[in-house]
Amino acid sequence: MAAQLSEQVVQVEYLDVLTNTGEKTGVSKPRGDVHRDGDYHRAVHVWIFAESTQELLVQLRADCKDSWPGHWDISSAGHISAGDSSLVTARRELQEELGITLPKDAFEKLYIFLEEWVTNEGKFINNEYCDVYLVTTIDPIPLEAFTLEESEVSAVKYVHHEEYRSLLAKKDPQYVPYDVSGQYCQLFEILSKRYKQNAETRATILQKQLNCYAPISLGAEYSGLSSADKEVLTLVVKAARIMDDIFFIQVWYSNPSLRDWLQQHAEEARLNNLKQMYFAVNKSPWSCLDENEAFLTSADSAVKLLPEATKPIVGWKGIEYRTAFPVVKPPGASFYPPDMDKMEFELWKKSLPEDKQKEAIGFFNVIKRQSERILDESLSVATRDTHDLYIVPYSQEYNALLTKASDLLHKAGDLTSCSSLKKLLHSKADAFLSNEYYDSDIAWMELDSKLDITIGPYETYEDALFGYKATFEAFIGVRDDEATSQLKLFGDHLQVLERNLPMDDIYKSEDVSAAPIRVVQLIYNAGDVKGPQTVAFNLPNDERIVNERGSSMVMLKNVSEAKFKLILLPISHELQDVHSAMEEAKADIVGLWALRFLVNKNLLPKTLLKSMYVSFLAGCFRSIRFGLEEAHGKGQALQFNYLFEKGAFLLQPDGAFSVDFDKVEAAVESLSREILTIQGRGDKCAAEALLSKYCVLTQPLKSVLEKLSLIEVPVDILPHFPIADEVFGL
């Protein structure tokens, strides 16, 4: 008897109590008490949708249910128990209620729905935040394939989504009521929009998005490379391609299957071809130039077959489903569980020893769930630790791919005769498997080679949740020795520039040194190089190295020149009387004030003065086209609006812009003084006021952006690398 009572106690389900806005309170209560007291809590709704028939699966709730017994309802639903996660619960509910076992890439999270109602004469109060998931199958699942949990489900059937919406709108007494004029209408709107889109309209939109990028072939002269280094180059390019494979996984776990599917079907129709092309630009279904708005849906995604997802049925091959991705780009990418929030991470991190806390926020690992591993591997729940989250180093998570890349880099290191390149290649190859990148980053800073190679995990922009996790990327180029020596001019005069900055001496640094700069001609890039192309990067990001040795910069000269030719020059045609001056401004502008100072010191030619201001104006327009959500766009908007207000930039009656050279120098110095002083003081209020006033899309900016869109000036370049054709036979 005691054992039976003990078992009953264990089976009591506890739920996390939420605030009325959906945040965890830190309190958990028995399920019955939660519904008695009307506490807010979490649940999952899982809809199974058959694409070919446009039907939703509904279940008949068992007569013993404490709410809505004997009514038709969602395909599968359930509470998220205290300490459990949303996606694991959704998978488990589908398995327990309907006998369907599906992997996580079958579940598309659509939205969160707040459900508030009272039934059973006020004895059952339901205040539920529901994560709504969609599983898209190609055809309906045969009804005999389901294994129903009798205590939960009496029967299942399919109904067309429009008919189901109509039944709910009419408040049919056989169906659990949902307000289809409120939040729950999103489900039906998503399905209708997704499958009623006109192919020609979609093709037109995608073509317009592709036209924002100007295709260009980028290469370099290999005459300075030895025959051995040309072999090295081939091996390194192959290793770089693997960075692409890893990056696709890092962005979203179903991303590689989507990439492969689009490539396989690209030649079937014009729309398919455009989908594949724009996906290749963004390396995901989210558009970089449109604030990560999705240009594909799960209806465009890969189809997978699962023969053993249900009990076997004679003559039926199994479930074919679409690999899913959310419409809203996940802020944590694939670095964290998709249903993990910041609070869960922080609570888990605080529970760890100090060394593990540092590891949790480190660059080179992913965070995963024990419960997901248990579900995937059918392990005993007894193996789960107290906390659901755990750390997996990159060297383990991407082991198969990194082992291939490591082998290629070791082979390349054996071939080269350049000692610093040899050190870099071998140390990076070792780092891929050890997950320790310190030595390889030092070797990168010390690189003195005609062949310039950057490869590995570096930038953390893809981790929009915390900014902790690094993405894999590669930049391979040939060093431009002449341009590298020319840029030493700025480094050699950096202390002089610092002493003469337009700000009070109290804010100036006594000891300033320039980061070493290598100028290269880019011949191949891969990995995290989606959308707009970078013209320079500053590495490493390891604070230990930055504090000990500083950092180094690599400038991609042919990328800068391509952007100048294909974007800045067309923009310059919209400026007044400046085209000839623009031709002279083909060098990167490090800073208007600094350039003017060096000109006045006769260290640069005076002919540069006018062209640099005009180049800056054209560059403002180019950067602002990326949007004011992006940091560089904000900075450019601030500078343009300030200089326009001071009369340094003029809008002519015909809509063209020009530079007032009598006013621009004073205006640039004034803005430089204001920004440098604010930063020197650490005056956050003044900084916010300046940004609030000038980081706006003013009418002059709107007019020029509309004009550039009308004449279809590209926003950025789309590089093609001939070396890829040679190495991969593309």
What's the N-to-C terminus distance? Answer: 73 Å
- Fraction of helical residues: 40-55%
Number of helices: 28
What is the number of E strands? 24
- Sketch the major β-sheet: 7 strands, mixed
Protein name: Nudix hydrolase domain-containing protein
Pfam families: NUDIX, Peptidase_M49
Keywords: Hydrolase, Metal-binding
GO molecular function: dipeptidyl-peptidase activity; metal ion binding
Q: What features would you describe in this structure?
A:
The protein is of the alpha+beta class and 730 residues long. The chain is built from 28 helices and 24 strands. The strands form 8 sheets. Strands 3, 4, 5, 6, 7, 8 and 9 form a 7-stranded mixed beta sheet that branches. Strands 17-18-19-21-20 form a 5-stranded mixed beta sheet. β1 and β2 (24-30) form a beta hairpin. α15 (419-434) packs antiparallel against α16 (438-445), α20 (557-572) packs across α23 (608-624) and α23 packs across α24. Residues 1-10 and 575-590 have low confidence and may be disordered. Residues 39-181 form the Nudix hydrolase domain.
Give the structure's gist in a few sentences:
The chain is of the alpha+beta class and 730 residues long. The protein is 43% helix and 20% strand.
Which helices and strands occur, and which strands form pairs?
Layout (H helix, E strand, L loop, with lengths): L1 H9 L3 E5 L5 E7 H7 L2 E11 L4 E7 L10 E2 L2 E4 L6 H13 L9 E12 L4 E14 L15 E8 H9 L15 H11 L3 H12 L2 E5 L9 H25 L3 H10 L5 H13 L3 E2 L5 E2 L8 E4 L12 E4 L19 H9 L3 H7 L4 E5 H8 L11 E5 H4 L1 H17 L3 H16 L3 H8 L5 E7 L14 E8 L1 H12 L1 H6 L17 E11 L8 E4 L3 H7 L2 E5 H16 L6 H5 L8 H9 L7 H17 L6 H15 L3 E3 L5 E3 L4 H18 L2 H11 L4 H12 L5 E5 L1 H7 L2
Parallel strand pairs: 3-8, 10-24, 19-21
Antiparallel strand pairs: 1-2, 3-4, 3-6, 4-5, 4-9, 7-8, 11-12, 13-14, 15-16, 17-18, 18-19, 20-21, 22-23
